[in-house]
Amino acid sequence: MCADIRKDWDTYFMDIAYMVSTRSRCPRRHVGAVLVQGKKLLGTAYNGAPMGVPDCSEAGCMISEEYELTNQDGKEVMVKKQRCVRTIHAEQNLLLFTDRADREGSSVYVTDEPCWTCANMLANSGITEIVFHRPYPKDTSKVRQMMEHKGITFRSLSGYEPPRETLMTVSD
């Protein structure tokens, strides 16, 4: 008899998020997101330029620099952040192309921990859980604090291994 080996649901949905991320043409980071209610997949999205607009691989990245005063180990530290403003994030595209009714009580699986802007949008979207794989340390502490305040489950998949064909070098 052959053993029936199945992936657990977290692995299954995160694998799909990574496969979706392969559609991205961003040279800095491929991000995929999926909307799930129970065990039903309701939508997918990836990061990229708006439809019909040249993307970063065609027109170059539009990098914006910003500085933020943060508290690290009891000391105030100025942190420099670089963000591409040409790209719509995967989480934002997911919210643009799914219905509010489908998001109520749903989970979002995303390859990368959401940035502050995406976390704000997700917090107001009706979802009850965010599951991510790769950390985004620039916004982690304030995003975690907000999710806790909102009662949204926010968890990282430790030990998860993405499908080999979806991997790329990620730059900050």
From TrEMBL:
Residues annotated as catalytic: 91
Top-level taxon of origin: Bacteria
Signal sequence region: none
Protein name, per record: dCMP deaminase family protein
Organism: Paenibacillus urinalis
Gene3D superfamilies attached to this UniProt entry: Cytidine Deaminase, domain 2
Family: Belongs to the cytidine and deoxycytidylate deaminase family.
GO biological process: pyrimidine nucleotide metabolic process
PROSITE patterns: CYT_DCMP_DEAMINASES_1, CYT_DCMP_DEAMINASES_2
Entry GO MF terms: dCMP deaminase activity; zinc ion binding
Domain CMP/dCMP-type deaminase: 8-154
Record bears the keyword Metal-binding: yes
Cofactor or coenzyme needed: Zn(2+)
UniProt binding sites for Zn(2+): 89, 115, 118
Keywords associated with the record: Hydrolase, Metal-binding, Zinc
Gene Ontology cellular component list: cytoplasm
